[in-house]
Design brief:
four-stranded antiparallel sheet, five-stranded antiparallel sheet, 17 strands
Length: 196
C-alpha cells in the first residue's frame, strides 16, 4: 500500500494482519488532513519511505523513538523504558492475574470485596508462543499466546512510529473457560504516591 500526505510526499504505511491500512499521519489540532491511499502497484512519483529509524521488533523486544520494551521468557512485559524520561517505568513485569470470584449474592454481576483483596490465585502463564505479527514502517507488534486454567490468552503488544508512538498498545483476545474467576491486568509501576 502507498499512502501520500497532503504535501504530496509518501508517508510510512503498511497493512496489518486484518488488511487494514496503518500509516503515520500528522494532523493539526482541531483540524483535518487528507491522505491518498493507493495499491502498491500504483506508479510512484517518488520512492516510498523506508522503515522509520528506531522502530524495531524481535520476539523478545520492541522499540520506537520513545520506548524500549523487553519481554521475558514467560511472555510478560518485563521492562518498559521511557527514553525521553531516561527511566524504567516498571517495578515488576506486567501480568494478567486470575482472581477467585465467588460472590455470596448475585454471582452474575456482583464482586465481593473479600475476594478482591486476596492475592491472585494464579497468573497467566504456561508455555508462551511468541511471534512477531507486525514489522512495518508505521508499526511493530508481538503476539504472545498462552493457556492457563482452561482459557487461552492471546496478547498483542504494539508500538507505532510518529506521534502514535507516545503510547504502548495492549490488545487481548481471550477464549475464557475459567470458572469462578475474574481477570485483572496488573501494571506495577515505579511511580508511586506515598500516603502520609
Amino acid at each position: 500500500v502507498r499512502v501520500t500526505g497532503p504535501d504530496g510526499k509518501d508517508v510510512a504505511a503498511q497493512l496489518d494482519a486484518s488488511a487494514k491500512v496503518v500509516f503515520v499521519a500528522k494532523v493539526p489540532s482541531a483540524g483535518y488532513a487528507v491522505f491518498d491511499v493507493q495499491s502498491l502497484d500504483a506508479p510512484a512519483v517518488q520512492p516510498a519511505k523506508s522503515k522509520v529509524p528506531g522502530l524495531t521488533v524481535t520476539e523478545s523486544s520492541l522499540e520506537n523513538a520513545r520506548y524500549r520494551i523487553k519481554l521475558d521468557a514467560n511472555g510478560d512485559v518485563a521492562s518498559l523504558f521511557d527514553k525521553t524520561l531516561r527511566k524504567e517505568l516498571l517495578s515488576a513485569p506486567i501480568r494478567l492475574a486470575i482472581k477467585t470470584d465467588q460472590p455470596v449474592d448475585w454471582p452474575a454481576w456482583n464482586m465481593d470485596y473479600e475476594d478482591q483483596v486476596k492475592p491472585p490465585r494464579a497468573y497467566v502463564s504456561g508455555a508462551a508462543k511468541i511471534r512477531v505479527v507486525e514489522n512495518g514502517p508505521a508499526r511493530v507488534a508481538v503476539e504472545v499466546v498462552r493457556e492457563t486454567e482452561g482459557s487461552t490468552f492471546a496478547q498483542t503488544v504494539r508500538l507505532a512510529a510518529g506521534d502514535g508512538g507516545n503510547r504502548v498498545e495492549f490488545g487481548n483476545v481471550i477464549d475464557w473457560h475459567t470458572a469462578a474467576a475474574n481477570l485483572k491486568a496488573t501494571f506495577p509501576l515505579t511511580a508511586s504516591n506515598r500516603s502520609e
